[in-house]
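User:
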Amino acid sequence: MTDATLHTAISARFARKRLLSFALPGLVLAYLAYVFVAFDIAGLGERVSLANAATLVRDTYSYKTHVTRDNRDASVEIAIEGERKGQYAPGTAPAWVTLPEGADGDTVIDLGKGHVVTFGAEAVTYDIPGYGRIVTTPGRGGVDAELPPGPVPDWISVSKNRLAVTTDAGRLTVTRNRAEVFRYALGWELFFFTLDSPYHAMGWGELASRAMDGEAGAILSDFWTNSMWRHGDVAWALVETVLMAFLGTFGAAIIALPLGFLAAKNFAPLGALRFAARRVFDFLRGVDGLIWTIVLSRAFGPGPLTGSLAILLTDTGSFGKMFSEALENVDGKQIEGVTSTGAKPLQRYRFGVIPQITPVLLSQVLYYLESNTRSATIIGAITGGGIGLLLTQAIITQKDWEEVSYYIVLIVLMVMAMDTVSGWLRRRLITGGGA
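Assistant: Predicted structure:
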């Protein structure tokens, strides 16, 4: 090859590499430009509501006490999160609500920081420090609102039929038939005991004293049957979630192990049999577990069993592929040693093959058990079982986001516990270590 020819070949190669080095970044930029337009990234700022996001975050670690007046008969109800299960008994109220002494008296709600709402006989007033007094008169024609002079602030929404005022102290909503105030407070109220429990508002010291006096069972029962937080139902939902993951994972491992021998070329000499077994594995793991969940729910109906079967089908495909690959890598000398003792085929598999692949099998099965514990949460939301169902119900209501955060915390703790247990089992069963 002459120098000119060599120079031409090298130049052409560098030209191709230069083109490739510019083409790849160009394709990436073109794709990002497409994503920017297709997903309307430019309009994201207009769609984002930081106020709603802040309210959502605040709802996860605080609760609202609703004070509601029926404008038709002037009756007042007070309830935690607006639920009847958290309703105050007639004539009782939190310290920041002053109930009327007579039939025609005013209900005064002190929201703190100088914010005071008054349910009067005819009008609803809201005194806001630094802004003034809002007077609202609901009637058959709608809501007549009188605001202090000047432009209407963004935190006030007023129309003919509705007035809504949102401040750092709380929120007031007035319509023709109802006036409602709610006030935020930190914590998960009624988490341990509801208002009708004799142990509500007791301190830890008094509860310990009652427990020592023989009321431990009653205290635990009131906590376990809490109608607001449903601790007993939540605990059973967690058990269902773990049970779905356990049955699905280990059921798949039991089914996949003998099928793995059919897909391993050193144990199944027939190519057609290996091909069929591997395509079955591809089909089972190629369909996502959520798809199997939807299909099986139509056949078997909702429930934890459907979730377990969905996990079983998906993991059978995954385990079958991994087990067959592990079987193809076994050491033939160990099998020959067992065969030399006169062992039968089943005995050769039991003592010559299984001990070699057991560490791989256990490691993969326990890892999938951890992963399926998380997956069972989503699957349970579809099949109507486990903690996933409770989480979905709490999200759909868009009201009690502290319950959502409670369930998420439990899910995280459950996954952490499964990780700890599976790690301990791996050390005990695979390496024989106890630490």
